[in-house]
Amino acid sequence: MVLGKGASSSLSMNKVDGAEEMVDNSNNFTVLVADDDPLIQKLHEMHLKKFGLKVQVVENGKKAVDLCHFGATFNLILIDKEMPVMDGAEATKELQAMGVNSLIVGVTSRDSPYEKQAFMEAGLDYCFEKPLTADKINFLLQELNKNN
Ligand SMILES: [Mg+2]
């Protein structure tokens, strides 16, 4: 459980997947999920929404770059490595070059240290392996609460 700023008064018990879970709905953090796999899109969107995050999904890096280019802002950008049109590494470089003020986190199934390092060097803040888990999301919420 991660407490956001002033979260203590706004914790609520929500029914999630049939289980009672503490959900912190106090944050207004926005997340952009860039992934070309429809299953991962759905899974990650569902998971992130449970944490009270506002989620937008795009299917390639170019769309992520375009959104930010035309003024959309996100607290967190979760970006896949392998995508058509523009892959995660190239999109990350573009986003960093544009000076976006987002935490940019790679989420990839590629586990070779070389590939992960190359992805990191494109300008990621962190790189996680798929799929996102509650632990990983909690970690990212902590980072967002530190920086926002
Ligand atoms: Mg992919």
Automatic annotation (TrEMBL):
The modification 4-aspartylphosphate is found at D80. Residues 30-145 form the Response regulatory domain. Gene3D superfamilies: 3.40.50.2300. The keyword ATP-binding does not apply. Pfam families: Response_reg. The gene is LOC111295716. This is Two-component response regulator ARR22-like. Keywords: Phosphoprotein. SUPFAM superfamilies: CheY-like (SSF52172). PANTHER family: TWO-COMPONENT RESPONSE REGULATOR, TWO-COMPONENT RESPONSE REGULATOR ARR22. InterPro entries: CheY-like_superfamily, Sig_transdc_resp-reg_receiver, ST_Response_Regulator. One of its GO terms (biological process) is phosphorelay signal transduction system.
